[in-house]
Write a structure and sequence with these properties.
heterodimer; A: 701 residues; alpha+beta; Aldehyde Oxidoreductase, domain 4; five-stranded mixed β-sheet; 29% helix; B: 160 residues; Ubiquitin-like (UB roll); DNA polymerase, domain 1; 5 helices
Chain lengths: 701, 160
């Protein structure tokens, strides 16, 4: 077995665990809880490997002074990589404990086992607990020397699934970074320019300083920060400043995104070309799908707490990558990384790279002026909608060649997109306020995510079927006034919509059932299982529907081509607007560590994707995003939620693949195809609003 | 910083409080900053997301949208109050259905649901959804939340 990658830089037990004075076993993970439930699943993986109950273990999540650096918690990789590493750690620990027990009890190690934390000899319970041997542990041991992770048949002895460990505190407690409190803590609010490309022209700082509760006003270039005695006063003063200050755009001409993104003359970059897509003959089919900017739209605004001491900066953040944030801040402040400690605390769900990192830097900029004091900075809703990175806008044109015997023999995808990644790191600080300090460090061009890591804009551009030769070409559009970065599933959402709509178009043309056409191009047994199961589960309902305005549609993809499989079938009603009335999904994520956790993630992805597909579009004016509140950016509401059926094919013998981003693309595609089933044409200019439907019908006429 | 001299009395989760804060301050900030009752979440401060919903004299109210002065002498319930009733049907059903993901919206939803079910325990799923339309959830836990509230209502209607 090949050791999981995180063990390379953190090879010893001591990198991953500690035993407290009270004999508590504390494990460390470089992963963070983003609301996806990964800490619950990681705890289950550790406990299962050790044969103890999850409640007997403590898990500390990412902090630069304690845990291994596992990079960014993103891309459905927590369980696949982070969890596997913890299994090795737990296994190495268990082997060492049994070895110690063997020596002390004078029983051969192979006769010893652990169940629910008790030591057993040949299946008989002894007087000993696994904690009795902690004093003999040598945590400098190398994990790979001792670890013998369980095979799938040996797993899940003590428990099958557990409840989320954090749900109760969410229901009546104060578990969020927003709730942190320290003695003497002050409250800050930034006054960001209305866009990253504007500067502060005029703001009366003296009047601002005199506003109620204001203690200090910090200004550096176009960055203004207010420090006040309460969060309410900080927020009120920031709002006053926004209404009374003057900012000027550095860009004079508005940028027409859609013209730019649809009509690019530049040569695209070829990402994949498996063979010449033009070598065969047949009929070419083509479809173009586009999506606008989409907000991450966290319910709780970006928040951070910072303290700047003499030679130490402490930052509490809900960033997805505490080590990367530390590198970026060290670079911008020209400080040694070791002087900065970054600690993760749960925030509101982020769904990708939102304002979490930016607000942490805001907090540091302001806290510098009050040395030794903690400062909590909370963005306003206005900041969220104007200052945080948005999900990229993109256009995908998919073409497929159909041979005379109705086989797909070539697939050609060309896509244009604004960047899907602009995360902070040492090479690319990408912290919003750094761009408009007196000595600015402007945001830099971050390269797109490479194909080896699942791709960025081109993620899932290759369809999950056997389609003959494949070519994928892309253009990343960097020079826009808008700041975009990672939003769940990156380019996969738009690419899956385009590819799956194209498959449906072709199936309809040759009068083959959409699922049958997909199965005709699928030999992979796990993909076939998914499609056949979804067909079976929905067949009866689909057969009885022939009302006007009702349509059914399917979407399927294997995330990144190597992750989890997900197929979604939706029923839509097209009336004044489109509503999704039913959503049935079948997923396969290999071993489902927490089956209910996986289902929860799949359902959440489906609902979020329905919201993107039917409603969401960031309003822009050529210079910046213009939404100011939720009323300018409606998202899916409770009364718009479909009846859901979420089916999981558990494959305990397969490696776990992650679930957080597998359902967004298939859901978007299923809706587009269901609308086409209802009204006869594919509306792929997302979101599918009434206007989008009318303009598609008009264009087809 | 005017008008802070007079103290305002109110009841929160059954306890009497006397607070000396500017009466124009929204209740949300008084709860979180002055009283340290942080289970009421700040989401937008503009009464558009419902994260800060509390119950005032039996009515669900967004606490960012009501001033401290307006709740003088009134009875306020926040999610902290639920901690003392672990077997409340709403808590039990939220846990049974694992109704949440990041959980940031949950306390507001819990309070809005409690106010509704105390008046209409047999509210239909459609009615529950209509009422919860004032509360945004971004993770997509809606279906589980609706399941949980609907089931809690059935228990509450039986007086359990």
């Amino acid at each position: 077995m090949i050791p999981p990658p995180p063990l390379a830089d953190a090879p010893h037990l001591k990198n991953w665990l500690q035993v407290s004075e009270d004999k508590e076993l504390i494990f460390f993970t470089g992963r963070v809880e983003l609301g996806q439930g990964n800490t619950t699943a990681l705890l289950m993986m550790i406990a299962d490997e050790l044969d103890v109950l999850p409640s007997s273990i403590i898990l500390e999540t990412a902090r630069t002074d304690l845990t291994p650096n596992e990079g960014i918690t993103a891309g459905s990789m927590s369980i696949t990589i982070g969890g596997q590493a913890l299994r090795w750690v737990a296994s190495a620990l268990k082997m060492q404990l049994l070895e110690i027990a063997s020596k002390r009890l004078r029983i051969h190690a192979k006769n010893l086992s652990i169940y629910e934390g008790h030591i057993f000899n040949k299946g008989k319970k002894t007087e000993c607990s696994f904690t009795d041997f902690f004093d003999g542990l040598d945590l400098t041991n190398k994990i790979v020397d001792d670890a013998k992770p369980k095979t799938f048949g040996e797993r899940r002895k003590c428990f099958r699934d557990i409840n989320r460990i954090d749900l109760e505190s969410q229901l009546f407690g104060a578990p969020f970074i927003h709730d942190l409190k320290f003695d003497g803590m002050l409250y800050g609010a930034p006054v960001h320019p209305p866009s990253a490309h504007s500067h502060l022209a005029d703001l009366d700082l003296e009047i601002l300083k005199g506003r109620p509760g204001v203690i200090k006003v910090v200004r550096d270039g176009s960055f203004v920060g207010i420090i006040a005695s309460t969060s309410y006063y900080a927020k009120k003063a920031a709002s006053w400043a926004r209404n009374n200050g003057k900012w000027e755009s550095n860009i004079k001409e508005p940028f027409n995104l859609f013209e730019n993104i649809k009509n690019l003359d530049t040569k695209p970059e070829t990402v994949i070309e498996s063979s010449d897509v033009n070598k065969n003959s047949g009929t070419w089919f083509e479809i173009t799908a586009s999506r606008p900017f989409i907000y991450h739209g966290s319910i709780g605004p970006a928040t951070a707490v910072a303290k700047v001491g003499n030679d130490k900066i402490t930052i509490y953040t809900h960033s997805q990558g505490v080590f990367q944030l530390r590198q970026a801040i060290a670079k911008v402040l020209n400080t040694a990384e070791e002087k900065i400690c970054v600690i993760h605390k749960p925030g509101s769900g982020c769904y990708g790279h939102n304002g979490a990192d930016d607000v942490a830097f805001d907090a540091v900029l302001m806290a510098k002026s009050i040395p030794g004091k903690f400062l909590k900075v909370v963005w306003s809703r206005f900041d969220e909608f104007h200052s945080s990175p948005m999900g990229a806008s993109m256009v995908t044109k998919s073409r497929a060649l159909l041979s005379s015997d109705d086989r797909l023999v070539a697939f050609d995808v060309e896509l244009n997109s604004t960047p899907h990644t602009n995360r902070p790191s040492a090479n690319f600080p990408n912290l919003l306020a750094a761009g408009y300090l007196a000595n600015p460090i402007s945001p830099s061009r971050t390269p797109d995510v490479p194909v080896a890591r699942g791709g960025g804009a081109d993620r899932n551009a290759i369809p999950s079927y056997e389609v003959g030769g494949v070519r994928v070409r892309k253009r990343i559009i960097y020079d826009t006034p808008y700041r975009t970065s990672a939003l769940r599933s990156l380019g996969a959402y738009c690419n899956v919509v385009a590819n799956e709509a194209l498959l449906d178009t072709i199936a309809k043309q040759i009068e083959v059932e959409p699922i049958a056409f997909r199965l005709d191009h699928t030999t992979d047994p796990r993909s076939r299982d998914i499609l056949e199961r979804l067909d079976y589960e929905t067949k009866k309902d689909r057969a009885t529907t022939n009302e006007e305005g009702i349509g059914w549609g399917i979407g399927f993809a294997r995330y990144k081509g190597l992750g989890g499989y997900c197929a979604v079938m939706v029923r839509v009603h097209v009336g004044e607007n489109v509503s999704v009335t039913d959503a049935i999904s079948v997923s396969d994520v290999g071993e489902a560590v927490s089956p209910d956790g996986v289902k929860n993630q799949v359902e959440g992805g489906i609902i979020q994707s329905i919201s993107w597909t039917l409603k969401e579009c960031v309003p822009v004016d050529g210079f910046s995003a213009t939404a100011e509140s939720w009323t300018d950016y409606p998202i899916l509401k409770f009364s718009e939620i479909p009846i859901m059926r979420t089916i999981l094919i558990d494959r305990p013998e397969e490696k776990p693949l992650g679930a957080g981003e597998i359902s967004q693309g298939p859901t978007g595609a299923a809706i587009v195809n269901a609308v086409a089933d209802a009204i006869g044409c594919h509306v792929t200019n997302l979101p599918i609003t009434r206007d989008a439907i009318i303009s598609t019908i008009n264009a087809e006429d | 910083m005017s008008k802070t001299n007079e103290s305002i009395s109110l009841i929160i989760n059954g306890l009497k409080y006397k607070i000396k804060v500017d009466p124009d301050t929204p209740l949300l900030f008084v709860l979180r900053d002055n009283l340290g009752l942080c289970a009421t979440r700040y989401g937008c401060g503009e009464a558009t997301c419902g994260a800060c919903t509390v119950i005032v004299d039996g009515q669900a109210v967004m606490s960012c949208d009501i001033s401290l002065g307006a709740v003088a002498e009134k009875s306020v319930q926040t999610a902290e109050g639920m901690q003392a009733m672990p077997s409340h049907p709403l808590l039990e059903s939220f846990i049974k259905y694992q109704a949440g993901q990041c959980g940031y919206c949950l306390t507001g939803i819990l309070m809005a649901s409690k106010a509704l079910l105390e008046k209409e325990p047999l509210a239909t799923r459609k009615r529950i959804a209509e009422v919860l339309d004032s509360n945004l959830c971004r993770c997509g836990a809606h279906a589980r939340i609706l399941d949980a509230v609907e089931e809690a209502g059935k228990f509450m209607s039986k007086g359990l």
